[in-house]
Write a structure and sequence with these properties.
This protein is an alpha+beta fold. It has 13 helices and twelve strands. The strands form three sheets. Strands 8, 9, 10, 11 and 12 form a five-stranded antiparallel β-sheet that branches. Strands 1-2-4-3 form a four-stranded mixed β-sheet.
Length: 381
């Protein structure tokens, strides 16, 4: 049914993000679903046309520490409800065997399902409050438990306040989602804000420009040279006017290479990634010795141009820097909420109503200055 190589197909993971209880009885009577099924059909019906929602038919997928468990999202509930919707002809269903390689099973709402849900729900789409918004994953991406601390409790309160504002922002159901902070391996790595389900974050930048908050078009403001700027501030060195302008290399390739060097854990991984990057393909054929040779030359030029911060390259610094930019993002959002303005985070950029762009710029610069980043600049994306 689906062709993995067909880039026109969109797919996202199942997310039981909608408050379903007020509609559960009516959905059950109309569609024969249980409580999990009611949550599933709301998620399916809120997706864009032609969008597939993936889910797992493997029991191990649903195993998680207690703090992350959702009584509706279990192996005994999700696959049987999908099978029921399939049997009733309410979804397009691409069912995969448990353990099969490649894509997971996936479903897509039929017009009939969308119409039935629309009749029952009308405009009453309310995001449910997530059970846990501070997530910790191991090196394989699996959720793991952690001991609560003053810091985790503080972060949880901050994110819950942001989610409360997002719930009341009047977002289109196809992109509305609560957010969480996701850490990797420890509470000192990453911690960026991620939307839980289909959202403004997994849209292309061009499409985001057409979004509205409270009926008003948005603009997206971005920190320029964010991670290099943090490293230069830590080194006590002046920030170059453009961190990605190194002759004779194309700027797009330099940007990819600089960010790769900051995030890679070894120089060999950085070299391989740069040599196989899309901007490199515009210069030479990927995968050959010439691409590797050019990657080596570019790395030497970058280290020469950025010698004050070269010690941070291929040292896995990116995970630590993401923690810094995540704290800045929380500060920005709370500064704006104090003024009654909701902004939507896209990691190191933010969406806001066009009329509030100046306020957002001031908040972003204030958050940067609190971190000692006085050379930081903000620009429209």
């Amino acid at each position: 049914m689906r062709t993995p190589g067909d880039e026109t197909e969109r797919q996202r993971c199942l997310s039981l993000r909608w408050e379903h209880r007020r509609h559960w009885r009516a959905l059950g009577q109309a569609l024969g679903v249980n409580e999990t099924g009611a949550a599933i059909v709301l998620d399916l019906a809120s997706t864009g046309a032609g969008e597939w929602v993936s889910y797992s038919r493997a029991a191990r997928h649903y195993a998680a520490p207690g703090r992350y468990r959702n009584a509706l999202y279990t192996f005994r509930r999700v696959p049987p409800q999908m099978d029921h919707l399939d049997a009733e002809g309410l979804i397009l269903h691409d069912r995969r065997a448990p353990g099969a390689r490649g894509w997971q099973s996936a479903a897509q709402a039929t017009p009939q399902l969308r119409e039935t849900v629309a009749e029952i729900v009308g405009g009453d789409w309310t995001l449910r409050k997530p059970g846990e918004v501070i997530l910790l994953r191991d090196k394989c991406g699996n959720l793991v438990d952690y001991r609560d601390s003053r810091n985790t409790r503080r972060m949880r309160r901050e994110i819950e306040k942001i989610n409360e504002a997002i719930r009341g922002a009047g977002l289109d159901p196809s992109i509305a989602a609560p957010v969480s902070r996701i850490f990797n391996r420890s509470m000192s790595r990453n911690g960026r804000i991620y939307a839980m389900g289909a959202s403004w974050q997994n849209m292309k930048a061009e499409a985001r420009r057409n979004l509205t908050i409270g009926g008003e078009k948005v603009v997206e403001l971005d920190y320029r040279n964010l991670h290099p700027a943090i490293l230069y501030a830590e080194a006590g060195a002046p920030l170059p006017a453009d961190c990605y302008a190194i002759d004779p290399w194309p700027r797009k390739l330099v940007k990819v290479a600089v960010l790769t060097l900051i995030n890679a854990s070894t120089i060999h991984k950085a070299r391989h990634s740069i040599a196989h990057s899309a901007p490199m393909a515009e210069l030479v054929e990927l995968g050959g010795q010439e691409a590797l040779r050019r990657a080596d030359a570019l790395i030497r030029d970058i280290k020469r141009a950025h010698h004050p911060i070269a010690g941070a390259f291929h040292s896995d610094a990116g995970a630590r820097l993401m923690l810094v930019d995540a704290e800045m993002a929380v500060t920005v959002m709370h500064l704006m909420l104090a003024q009654g303005v909701v902004v939507l985070p896209v990691h190191d950029s933010f969406l806001v109503q066009a009329s509030q762009a100046d306020r957002l710029e001031d908040a972003m610069l204030e958050a940067a200055h609190e971190m000692g980043l006085y050379a930081m600049e903000v620009a429209a994306k």
